[in-house]
Design brief:
The protein has helices spanning about 5-10, 35-45, 50-60, 65-75, 80-90, 110-120, 140-145, 185-210, 220-235, and strands at about 20-25, 50, 100-105, 130-135, 150, 155-160, 215. It is an alpha/beta fold. A hairpin with a 6-residue loop joins strand 5 (about 150) and strand 6. The two termini are about 20 Å apart. Mean pLDDT is about 90; it is low at about 1-15.
Length: about 250
Amino acid sequence: MSALMIEIDRDRETDSKTLPGPMLLLGAPGAGKGTQAKELVKLWGIPQISTGDLLRANVALETALGKAAREIMGRGELVPDTLVNEMVAVRLLEPDTVRGYILDGFPRTLGQANWLDARLEGQPEALPVVAVSVQVNYNQLLRRITGRRICPLDQSIYNIYVNPPKKDGFCDLDGAELIQRDDDTEEVFKERMRAYAALTAPVVEHYRAQGRFAEVDGDRPIAEIAAEIVAAVERLRMQPGAGSYEI
């Protein structure tokens, strides 16, 4: 067991002198990527940077970038990479990114990955991005998505396969009838999986070719997955060209 994994077991609030650096966390719909991102934020004390959050914040604050994005979206068009890149560039100037950050939803394309690499290469003190993918069996993912049921009152989440309510179809806490989201169907899931594979394949191969990519088993307890992600980042940081892991 690595020193980092021992430290995680001993204390869920990390105060180590390790430097995670920038990392991209990947995971198919239902793989638990969001849960793991929250765990890593607590463990490392670094921010999670979501392009969706950045876009919404810029639009809400009516920044110059937000106004440009709103105009583009108002025409029913996709926000171009150049605009997304600018939002990310501004966010990376914030002081909380010095030790590292967890990228969520970016880079989504090969163009964005190349832009980010070039930007970090231009900063002598910056480590390159390492990417870790949380892997879960397709059928397990399908059960996680299609089995999900939500209480409309307290937002409690159940799963008819692995975490069913005591009374079929009703919330344990308030007795409300549980609902299934419109997009939690097999048809929608299959389409989301196809889109995810098509989008991420070039990005995964980009980092794999440079020795900056790892996969972890996501069909285990949350803490175990988090420990393996940390260990994977530790290994990747020891690879040539991936930067020093110690401050």
